[in-house]
Design brief:
49% of the residues lie in helices and 15% in strands. By secondary structure, it is an alpha+beta fold.
Length: 740
């Protein structure tokens, strides 16, 4: 960070930003002494960072001010957290110590700063370390602060958000690492803690840099749609306003549009176009329940629902009742999708002011209402989740890489509600089985389970539970955990109990696994040798180079070998002639990697099979120890996972067009069937565009055709041209690129 004299303009910007922060802090501080402490923290930090600039060239103090602004405005924390945010870089970047902070600001603020300093130290120093699990250890350190004070994590999220806002000043390799770990851990963490504003902004920044073309196109379409539909939405709201006033509600109505990321994510996961995202617009009704009302908050939400559905027709399969069953991050609201008189679908969210505070500020709002004496059936949900995370963190049998995956899966898994035979409601992860449920009741019930009665009907232990199921577990004293159970168990608790039981039989499992590996290798014409073992250890990310560990995981059913042939064949290709890729351009850059052209045989390149990037896609590469670079799309979830755990492997390949190379892609099509349409599609692709078709799979049902075409293209530009032309064929409703 360069040190230089500040200009009058620098001082003016600092004064302006701090004035905005002080105004926001004034609303959160209970008295003048708390506000004075904020002033004291700013004065201290301002002096400590005097003359220091960020990579962007702006005064460094603007960063702590911005983090503090997020802490107070977006998260809603109090004066101690505001002070800690202002001071969070002082110990790391100056000569002051935590003891100095403690002497001036007291134990609690010093403790928060200490936690933030430890996190920053490991994150900043990770590039100097060579261990494969260094990033995982860093995130473990971050989450360990949950043991001390959740506010450390909340301030760290604010710090990460501001770093994302200013990420344009980072070199590309560093930018990609930060964005990947943001998507893998920080965004799910913000969601789990109920910080929707923070989460949404991070997601949009991620998309802006990972897929800039998609971000810009979607943003432009949103702006055009808002201009076109503004009047229609106002006309939609008007009768709702009148009806709720007549009913005596104290309320406000807000309009919003889906974020670019949420639209992009829906387009990708659903395989649809922008025009097919029908819940693009949302209207939020926020009302004060009224102290004198005889109805509960929940009943008043249903009352509002009955009023608005008396005006407009609603889509029955789009009702989301998070009032009766709040999300596991505490989110409460009643969602429904209504058809306006002008013919557009509009999502309506019904919330009380308390529900809205929690929706916008998450865990901080939970604490506020809890202190104020508001109690509901879900008040301990956040506490129980934090306790569960602490339990995982202190488990000596979980290494850092496993921990990172466990936390990621826990953060991104939705819950459902089921019932015991006595009618008690239980929350369990979506996708969980009857056996997971048995282990959630008691380990012995799980160990001795033989079957289940679900809704009075006999079902196997592998039955996947659905919301509303009532489950009774049938046990037998002679039953014990089986290796094959690991193939369908979903919850961490259940898997760990079974794994602990099976550890006593490890050698037998290793032998079973080795035999299974040999048999499956033989089935694809290969033998177990050093080459295939190296390929499997790398392909299945067993970085300890422990063959027995691989056999053990296969033997107990924890590791499937479904893609064994792909992994082994790739290794054979790599170990043969070195691949010179003319579609990568030489690019020398400090802290980056030189992508070699076809004249250099030193390095080999693999196009990742999980996302199949083509020239023109935004890509990221990962350098293996043998010099191989595996190239992924930047938005690939596998790439985000690898970058979050192994940021030191990131390299930045750059496409260069090569006319003699072709890449496999899949196009998903849907439309109205008519005689000759399939022939017209195939003729156009093959004859007009001169594109080779590998597979053609289209079916028709009651006048609608749907399916996909696998074909070879030179680059993204060719693909987009083909999609545009296909969309013009009569009857075709949508053509989208999808995963193979």
């Amino acid at each position: 960070m360069p040190i230089s004299d500040f200009t009058q303009q620098d001082y003016a910007v600092i004064a302006r930003d701090y004035a905005d922060l002080k105004e926001a802090a004034r609303k959160r501080c209970a008295n003048q002494s708390e506000l004075d402490m904020v002033q004291k923290a700013f004065d201290f930090a301002n002096e400590a960072h005097k003359g220091v600039r960020r990579r962007s060239g702006e005064p460094y103090i603007l960063h702590p001010i911005a983090v503090a602004q997020i802490v107070v405005s977006n998260i809603g924390l109090g004066y101690k957290s505001i002070c800690a945010a202002l001071l969070h870089d002082v110990v790391e970047d100056t000569d002051y110590t935590v003891d100095d902070i403690r002497n001036i600001f007291g134990d609690k603020i010093a403790s928060l700063v200490d936690g933030l300093t430890k996190i920053k130290t490991v994150l900043d120093n990770e590039d100097k370390a060579k261990q494969n699990s260094i990033q995982a250890e860093n995130f473990k350190r971050i989450l360990l602060t949950l043991n001390d004070d959740v506010r450390v994590v909340l301030i760290k999220l604010a710090d990460r958000l501001h770093n994302c806002r200013t990420i344009e000043f980072m070199p590309e390799y560093k930018r990609d690492k930060i964005l990947s770990e943001t998507m893998f851990i920080f965004i799910p963490l913000a969601h789990r803690l109920g910080l929707y504003e923070v989460k949404s902004e991070m997601e949009d920044i991620w998309l802006r840099y990972k897929e800039p073309q998609a971000f810009n196109e979607i943003s432009e379409k949103i702006n055009r749609n808002i201009n076109d539909k503004e009047k229609e939405i106002d006309e939609f709201i008007q009768p709702i306003n009148e009806a709720l006033k007549t009913a005596g509600f104290d309320f406000e109505v807000k309009k919003r549009v889906k974020t670019p990321y949420s639209i992009w994510h829906k387009m990708i996961t659903k395989g649809i176009t922008f025009e097919q995202v029908y819940d693009l617009y949302a209207v939020r009704i926020i009302f004060n329940p009224g102290a004198n009302s005889t109805e509960s908050e929940r009943d008043q939400c249903y009352h509002v629902f009955s009023i608005i559905t008396g005006i407009y027709k609603y889509k029955s399969d789009r009702i989301r009742d998070w009032v009766k069953h709040p999300k596991n991050n505490g989110y409460e609201a009643l969602h429904c999708t209504l058809m306006s008189h002008s013919g557009i679908w509009i999502e309506v969210q019904i919330r009380t002011t308390r529900m809205n505070d929690i929706a916008e500020r998450g865990i901080a709002a939970h604490w506020t209402y809890k202190k104020d004496g508001f109690v509901d059936e879900n008040e301990n949900e956040m506490d129980s989740w934090i306790s569960k995370v602490k339990e995982i963190l202190v488990n000596p049998d979980v290494n850092a890489l496993e921990l990172l995956d466990i936390i990621h899966n826990d953060l991104t898994t939705a819950d459902i509600f089921v019932f015991t035979p006595k009618g008690d409601q239980k929350r369990i992860a979506k996708g969980a089985t009857a056996l997971d449920f048995a282990y959630s009741i008691h380990s012995e019930i799980g160990n001795k389970a033989i079957a289940a009665k679900v809704n009075m009907k006999l079902e196997p232990l592998s039955y996947e539970l659905k919301t509303g199921d009532q489950i009774e577990i049938i046990t037998a004293e002679t039953e014990k955990p089986k290796r094959e159970w690991l193939q369908f168990l979903k919850t961490r608790k259940a898997k760990n109990i079974v794994l602990d039981y099976l550890k006593g039989e490890r050698q037998e499992s290793v032998s079973v696994g080795r035999k299974m590996v040999e048999e499956q290798l033989a089935a694809i014409g290969c033998k177990l040798n050093d080459s295939t073992m190296k390929a499997m250890l790398s392909g299945y990310e067993i970085f300890e180079d422990d063959a027995d560990e691989l056999f053990f995981r296969v033997g107990i059913g924890l590791l499937k070998l479904n893609n064994l042939e792909e992994i082994v064949r790739k290794n054979e290709e790599k170990s043969g002639k070195s691949w010179g890729f003319p579609w990568f351009k030489n690019k020398e850059k400090k802290n980056s990697y030189v992508i070699n052209d076809e004249t250099d045989t030193k390095h080999k390149y693999v196009i990742a099979g999980c996302c199949n990037p083509i020239p023109g896609d935004s890509v990221v590469g990962f350098l293996a120890s043998d010099g191989t670079v595996t190239v992924h799309k930047k938005t690939c979830s596998v790439a985000n996972s690898i970058a979050a755990k192994h940021g030191d492997r990131i390299v930045m390949p750059v496409w260069e067009k090569a006319a003699d190379q072709s890449f496999l892609v899949r196009l998903s099509l849907k439309g109205l069937d008519r005689i000759g349409i399939i022939n017209e599609i195939s003729r156009y692709i093959s004859l007009v565009m001169s594109v080779n078709i590998r597979k053609f799979c289209l079916g028709t049902d009651e006048g609608i055709f749907e399916g996909y075409i696998d074909l070879y293209v030179h680059d993204k530009e060719d693909l987009e041209k083909l999609i545009k032309k296909l969309n013009k064929i009569e009857g075709i409703q949508s053509v989208v690129r999808s995963d193979i």
